[in-house]
Amino acid sequence: MRTIQFCVLLLAALFACVVSAAPERDSTYMDKLLKSSSINPGLIRLTDKNFGDVISAPRDYAVVVLLTAESPSMGCQLCRQFAPDYHLVAQSWSKEHPKSGDGLYFAVLDFVDGQRTFQSLGLKTAPNVWLYGPTVGENAGPAAPIVYEIHGVVDMPGSVARFIESHVPGVGITIYKPRDYSKIGQAVTGLVAIGLFIRYLYPILKPFFESRTLWAGISLVAILMFTSGHMFNNIRHTPYVAGNKEGGVSYVAPGFQQQYGFETQVVAVLYAFLAFGAISLSIKTPRIKDSTRQLLSVLTWATIIWCLFSALMFVFRMKNPGYPLSLPPMTK
C-alpha cells in the first residue's frame, strides 16, 4: 500500500515539474517576447526555437507571422519590397498599443533563422503571411493559420490591415505613414532657389516684371485662350475639323455644347483683333494731335470693329441658326 502511494506521489510530482517547465502560450508570454525583440518596434523575431511555442495551441491571442527571406543571398526581391509595408502595419499597431500587443502580435521568421521551420511547413516560396487566431476565449477559432494573398495588391499596408480586421474581431488598425522628409527637403530647396533667384537675378529682370505692357499682353493672351474655348478643347480632346454628311469638311461644330479646334482659333483671332481695335480707339487714337488723322483713325477702327463683330455674329449663327442676333454686312 505504501508503495502505491509513493508511486502516485512521484507521478504527481513529475507532472507538476513538466507543467511548470512548459512554455507559456498566453499574452504574457508574447509581451515578454515583444519587449525583448531586437528588430523594428512592434515586431517579434522568431527562430526555429520559439516558432512552435508562439503558434502552439491553446493560445488566447492572435499572431500574424511573416515568413520571408530578406537576405541578399536568397535573391528574393519581393521579400525586400513587402517587408517595409508589413513593418508599417506592425509599427502602426504598436503606436496605439505601446505597452503590450493587446491580444494581437506581429512576428517575422526569416529563412536564415528558421530553415527547419520552412522545411517542416513545406514552404518553397516567400514571402508568406499567416494569421494564427486565438483558440480560446470568446473569439476562439481553428488552430490552423489563415493565409493572406500578397500578389496583385495595390495598397499593401491597408490591405494587410483589412485582412487582419476581417479575421480578428474587435481589432481596428490605423495606418500611420511616416513623414516623407524628402518632400520637405524638396520644398526647402525650391524656396532657397527662389530666394537666390530673387536675390541675384531680380535686379536684371526687374524692368520686365514691372512692365505694364508685358503683363497686359500676358493677361490678354490668357483671356483669349480661356474665352475662345482652348481649355474646353484640351479637356474634351475635340477634333480640329470633322466630316459632314455631304462628304465635305465641317469647320464649325453645330450647337453651343461642342466645338472644333479650327473654330476656336477663328474665334480667338476675332477676339484678339477686336481687343486690339478697342485698345487703339481708347488709348492710341486720343493721342493723335492732328484732328484729321484722328478722325480717319476713328472711322477706320470703327469700320474694322464693325466688320469683325459681324464676322463673330456670323460664326455664332453658323453654330446655331436660331441665334437671334446678327450684324450686317455678314448676315445669313
From TrEMBL:
Main location: endoplasmic reticulum
Annotated transmembrane regions: 184-202, 214-232, 266-283, 295-316
InterPro entries, alphabetized: OligosaccharylTrfase_OST3/OST6, Thioredoxin-like_sf
Signal peptide: 1-21
Classification via Pfam families: OST3_OST6 (PF04756)
Superkingdom per UniProt: Eukaryota
UniProtKB keywords: Endoplasmic reticulum, Membrane, Signal, Transmembrane, Transmembrane helix
UniProt key word Transmembrane: yes
Keyword Membrane: yes
Compartments, record wording: Endoplasmic reticulum membrane
Mode of membrane association: Multi-pass membrane protein
Function: Subunit of the oligosaccharyl transferase (OST) complex that catalyzes the initial transfer of a defined glycan (Glc(3)Man(9)GlcNAc(2) in eukaryotes) from the lipid carrier dolichol-pyrophosphate to an asparagine residue within an Asn-X-Ser/Thr consensus motif in nascent polypeptide chains, the first step in protein N-glycosylation. N-glycosylation occurs cotranslationally and the complex associates with the Sec61 complex at the channel-forming translocon complex that mediates protein translocation across the endoplasmic reticulum (ER). All subunits are required for a maximal enzyme activity.
Stored PANTHER family: DOLICHYL-DIPHOSPHOOLIGOSACCHARIDE--PROTEIN GLYCOSYLTRANSFERASE-RELATED, GH11935P
UniProt family annotation: Belongs to the OST3/OST6 family.
Protein name per the record: Uncharacterized protein
Organism from which the protein derives: Myxozyma melibiosi
